[in-house]
Structures
1.
Amino acid sequence: MSSILESFADALRQAMEKSQPLYIRGGGSKYFYGNPLAEKTIPLDVTGYQGIVDYEPSELAITARAGTSLQELENILAQQGQMLAFEPPHFGKPATLGGSIASGLSGPRRAYAGAVRDFILGVRLLDGQGREMSFGGRVMKNVAGYDVSRLMAGSMGTLGILLEASLKVLPRPEMERTLCFATTMERALEWMRSYATRPLPVSATCFSDGRLYVRLSGMEAAVVAAQKQMGGDVEENGETFWESIRHHTHTFFHGRPILWRLSVKPTTAHLPLPGEQLIEWGGALRWFAPAEAVAANEVRRLATAAGGHATLFYGDRDGILVFQPLSPVLLRIHQRLKQQFDPAGILNPYRMYPEF
Amino acid sequence: MQRCELIRQLLAILPPDSVLYETEDLRPYECDALSVYRQLPLAVVLPCTEAEIIEILQLCHRERVPVVARGAGTGLSGGALPHAQGILLSLARLNQINEIDPLACQARVQPGVRNLAISQAASSYGLYYAPDPSSQIACTIGGNVAENSGGVHCLKYGLTVHNILKLRVLTIEGDVIEVGAEAYDSPGYDLLALLTGSEGMLGITTEITVRLLPKPESAQLVMATFSDLAKAGEAVANVIQSGIIPAGMELMDNLTIGAVEDFIQAGYDRQAAAILLCESDGMAAEVTTEIEKIEHILRASGAIKVEIAQDEAQRQLFWAGRKAAFPAAGRISPDYYCMDGTIPRKHLARVLSQIERLSAEFNLRCMNVFHAGDGNLHPLILYDANESGELHKAETFGARILEICIAAGGTITGEHGVGMEKLDQMCLQFSDAERELFLAIKAAFDPQALLNPGKAIPSLHRCAELGAMHVHHGQTSFPELPRF
Ligand SMILES: Cc1cc2nc3c(=O)[nH]c(=O)nc-3n(C[C@H](O)[C@H](O)[C@H](O)COP(=O)(O)OP(=O)(O)OC[C@H]3O[C@@H](n4cnc5c(N)ncnc54)[C@H](O)[C@@H]3O)c2cc1C
């Protein structure tokens, strides 16, 4: 592994000398996500740096190299009755741990258990100058120094090559059961909020095509008691259903030329957008597939008014930025941070914002 | 700028009762809860609005005057220690809860609001704010964000960073930034995470949107008594290994038990080597089942006695003992020094016995009371500052404990922050390149280093000197770590 590490550092140093932009490439499952790469960018494959470094179930923590297959990692956890509670979307077999952290995406359990950033305990990375560094650790609490580890989540590979990460893991719930209700979008939104304000073991919610799905997770006693309070029909294929939402294999996501992701305040009412919507996270996440041409500005205006932002998740960009633009002061801070981590600006330039 | 000119300009921004400059008025602000470090600032300002703070920052930025923020001053690492050439900016008067949105399970609060006040205000909606530091009646939410504070229940419910959604922050230039959102994520880098735990070094927080949780239907507490501290440590691992995440899991050693019993008679067994408190919360039916499982595991792990609190009063009493541990230490010793290292749980027994040996070596008593579920140790070193040399001995003992924590794969601070106190240990935990990056992050927000200068991140020079000193005495603690 140390020779692979050396080769990464070499590649970085050479790229720096030649001002050669690099694309840090994991499994490629999330290649679609982000702004198009700068011209003449060459890929740097980082999948070779893989393997579990340390896993002790009683510590509730796993440390693995960034190139480790997400599937393999989750299988190993499952053997010990544990899981990554943020349910990272795979979007394909080759998905790696590093790509999952860099893209910062989390699945159905996010609103109830936390996002990928919430489970990061520590990272090891190479900065843009090829310097190896470690932040955070393998322990549950650590406030020594700034929280560079969590900063890596969602940084889209613009701050460094992620080498290794330690993540908090959780026991799999003793029981999971999915309830299903036929209802309108308005009612579904109301119910999602009502559940959130009550001490119920809800671990995922989704509204799609006239149906509200609610997953309960926990001890059998809790799941049964909650089901009694809530009613609804039991969805027999609950597990398959949530997998399809998590990995976007559900029919809602089939054959969509354009998909918007609106992250909004959970109490936001039904958003009047021309097309179909699928709602998750207790109302806080709205997937929107336009039925007709819709102005990006209009989508972003609605999302902003709802306390959030809109991402052009995939589809023909036609000059539209994938991520919602930042305020000038925030952009300045982003540029300065980027400059410190990657002074030559060689790591995934443009991927996040055209300014860096 | 001359001190009197600075005061004159501050008085032009603020009403007279918001600027303190007489020595006797400055005294209450000369230290935080780590009172071995004391320093008077040039002036203390007590603004009431964000607009006033903006003007104060613009003035300080223009005139290159250091600014140290202060919440309630309960910090345990000297984070709010004033700067001799700077002003102390108290956020205590920004103490309004701006909005509680029960349907969204969110509250928007000013930084000077006390931690417990949020839960009290949310209570009528059946909601609460989960992180519960023992200092929660006094400490402010602004201070919690700056330290990423934890509490007894953070094993299950997370630290401050997991329970806040959005911050309004002023840069040293007086610009407003908003990081995070009322939604669950926001575009760009996760500056919300970066700012949490940044010890007032990157910006001044003026508003916090916190996440509220529904109050659990039921909570139950088990108290397990052990005749062997190592067994208690193993019991902690066994509970977690079984797939249970208790709402809280706290351990106390024999010295703590005695001190607490003298103080509030919580009903702990004085003969015990250790007491483990383990709480379950959730739906009533779930709690009953979980408590049965916990009880079984604790017995199987060698507990000599396992008691379930009979009623709410007894549950509160068992907790009261744990919560009174710090004041109890204050009763059996003139002074105590609280450490905050975190280690992987599996090393609990070994590290505790190493601490015991050090206690004998330094001839200073040490109480152990800590967040066992997280592996977050709080050794309380008992000493008497009036005995010459004892403070120094206590500090050396503490430093050795932190070195043990690093060697065990842990960290020098789990929740109290680096502040002024642990600058030297930062040199041990991080390499030059890592500390350089920290300094660079600081510079990205605050290029002139005016916000809380000298805290949290040691200068490269300091670490180089420290490295030289260690070698000079021929007793380098970590020869394998690169120093220069
Ligand atoms: C008896 C006792 C028990 C404790 N128990 C716990 C515990 O269980 N868990 C735990 O984590 N901690 C605990 N602490 C430590 C302390 O209470 C926490 O660190 C707390 O968060 C500090 O809050 P404060 O308002 O007192 O902040 P202060 O001590 O006033 O300041 C702390 C730091 O925050 C900065 N700061 C304050 N407000 C702002 C702001 N608005 N913007 C930017 N920076 C700011 C200051 O500059 C300083 O660096 C305990 C302390 C005591 C004395």
Note: The CA atoms of residues 172 and 469 of chain B lie 35 Å apart.
2.
Amino acid sequence: MAREVKKAVDTALVDKIVAKHRTREGALLPVLREVQDSLGYLPQEALERVALGLGLSLSRVYGVATFYSLFYTRPKGRYMVRVCESAPCHVQGAQEVIDALIRELGVSFGETTPDGRFTLEKVSCLGVCGVAPAVMIEDRVYGNLTPESVVAVIQEYR
Amino acid sequence: MSNVKLTINGTQVEVPAGSTILQAAEKAGVRIPTLCHHPDQDIKGVCRVCVVEVEKSRTLQAACAFPVAEGMVVRTNTPAVREARKVIVELMLSRHPQDCLGCARNMKCELQALAQELGIRDVRFSRREKDLPRDTSTPSLVRDPSKCIVCRRCVYTCSEVQGVGALFPAYRGHEAVVVPAYDNPMIDVVCSLCGQCVHACPVGAITEHDDTEEVWEALADPEKHVVVQTAPAIRATLGEEAGLPAGTLVTGKMVAALRRLGFDRVFDTDFTADLTIMEEGSELIHRLTTGGTLPLLTSCSPGWIKFIEHFFPELLPNVSTCKSPQQMFGALAKTYYAEKFGIDPAKVFVVSIMPCTAKKFEAARPEMNSSGYRDVDVVLTSRELGRMFRQAGIDFDRLEEEEFDKPLGLSTGAAAIFGATGGVMEAALRTAYELVTKKELENLDFVEVRGMKAIKEATIDLDGTKLNVAVAHGLANAKELMERISRGEGDYHFVEIMACPGGCIGGGGQPIRTTNAVREQRIDAIYREDRRMPIRKSHENPAIKQIYEDFLGEPLGEKSHHLLHTHYTPRKRV
Ligand code: SF4
Ligand code: SF4
Ligand code: SF4
Ligand code: FES
């Protein structure tokens, strides 16, 4: 598993964000959003401050953070590589494309390459079933992929 | 409260308004299968195994969550209901490892029982078993998240009953699983290792760390002198491992069975429970008379100790420095006992039979080696001992009763009640009263501190000196009490805490299944044991008097300090 390089987290900043929202009902989601905006993702040290500040258990905070697909509990790479794994892509051979991607990037879903360039992620549908199997990198969609062409696409971002 | 009449499978029942369909069905004698439902927990309604037909309702309803209404017509046994339940359970099974034969919960598993009850023979969905790593990071528990069916029962127990919150559902959809934050190993999180989640879990996703093999090896080793100690609560629960009803006392049969397993000496943790009373009682009197830190908090429950180290490190000076009876026993077995009987302490191997998973962690703490060796070598839970009896072909119930060996097997009724919430307090009061007032205590039964009430309080008159005491069991109750103390409320002098609901009889290592109703029956057995004992006060135990004369000197003396007392370690709060 790709283990992220530990950077010191600005806990004072996290505490400030918690203090701002603490008194309101349902503070957790806005706090998580703001912490992620500041830090890029939700590292353990930051969520520990959130848990202490809001009087919640860390496991609960983590549970909520991992329930929403827009929160990241591991560092994100420079480019988000999103792979569609819905049925139409699946029948069009998405699995081979996925295998090729995993081989090329050397990470599995939810992980970031050690050089910090790519984060691989599964999504349920990209809405481009006509060109299945499809992959989205940042906001560009690539369709009709094969195990070979997907590697070529990745090369463009190297 | 008003009543409501409804019809279940054609039979009319009347139940209080606000009841659920499940409760009404129970009253009507109709069984509805459940899985996420637990009798001691709030409604979750997540598994949908309990679905029933409610007339005029478009979809099937979860009986455990759906409230009854006047004139409601419920059917629990229609083709649609049977099929829906099967589909729900088959979907679970399609994601579940097929490991029953090698699973610690085989034959005691609610999912397995449910599959049988519903008559499932094939799973109509393609198998996509979860394949997640097992967590064996603690000496106490093994988590196997691949077996987790996300029923959330452990989550309820860990957060609501134990106030810890080490486990929570993470991720979503197919990937949802109940884990510690960031999938951290259990040894790195705030878990107390109490093992209450094991009782909550319907399946084998959380089990005790099995150490039986190490004990078999020691028993087979002719070089080793293997002694066993049995915790106060075991005699009131072990019978359940042999199929006897909850609340059966099996003291003499347990001793006989342990001898059959091959232990060289069968001793009793009750002996060191009496010793704990001498040491802790003296510590209390010392703190009271010298202006020491009060209230004094008891220290016998290792789940509680780990909890306070995490959550209230500022209160650690309040915790009694007494080791738990288990650890006192280990330290004495490898010093006093070895010396007295001329046995090389390096060859003494101490096994303890405990109600508790946290005891495994306690025995492994680095400071627990005051004998010069690891004081307690292996800790087995009552479930593991039951397993060993079965492997050895010992038909426990048919054995004649036998007596513990001397001298570490002599004990009192005061020690026996350590097994139930309030017992340590009551035992301490029996002794403190007589030591302080120098008068004989007339009524030995301090009933105010007994029973399942969350927090119990009493004021005891020690001949003019008023002693305010409190007792809490279950860590959420302990937390509540610690918050009161932190706020300066209560003016307590002495506080007993047990990590597990009901005390050790409800410990995380006790037989499956442990519910509050079962706990009550076991508590009754504990007080029967107390009444049965010829001596019921710790300071009257002749073997205790002897050990002070021969070896320890006096309570809180130098030897005691070295062998029987300990210190604590503040830990992370999150
Ligand atoms: S948890 Fe239950 S169903 Fe699953 S393998 Fe174990 S015994 Fe079988
Ligand atoms: S052992 Fe106790 S504290 Fe730890 S997860 Fe289980 S219930 Fe929670
Ligand atoms: S670990 Fe057990 S109790 Fe907890 S959610 Fe999973 S199956 Fe339920
Ligand atoms: S038992 Fe009713 S929903 Fe789980």
Note: Residues 28-39 of chain A form the longest helix (12 residues).
